[in-house]
Description:
With 164 residues, the protein is an alpha/beta fold. The protein is built from 3 helices and 8 strands.
Amino acid sequence: MLRAGFFCCVAMAVSGVAAAAVPDVYITPRAGSLERQAALELQRYLYAVLHDLPRVEVVENVPQGSFGFVVGTPENLPGTGLAYPFGLDAPSGDGYVLRTISEGRRSLVVVAGPTPKGVLNGVYGLLEEMGCVSFRTAGGLALSRTGSLRGIAVDMNRMPDVVP
């Protein structure tokens, strides 16, 4: 998959450049309960790895110069200046899009899906791409707390794997 590194905002947070380097998670006020849950899951796992709590920010548009994660369905996605599906093929059903946006000082990873369940699947998919967790272990979940934040740039759409 795309394990070429992590993106600059989390790399700065891990290297301890500044306390403000912890990425934020952005959702809109219109986000439904499952989209909010996806944002909280992302916050929870990032906290387990970074040992610093990312903020979940409720915004209509992501501020310029921001870095972090943008989470939602196309109807409820905070504005980034780019339109869903961000130059990728739109996934169907409970699939998702992961897209890195880097412009000047702004560095974002968008996690979007056509359904709220797709957004939640996207968060879990991103966490696996980052190497933070593995949901495919015999015991259910393996959390990596060291060496887990390898830089990646994500530009993909995916349908979740179905386990029989």
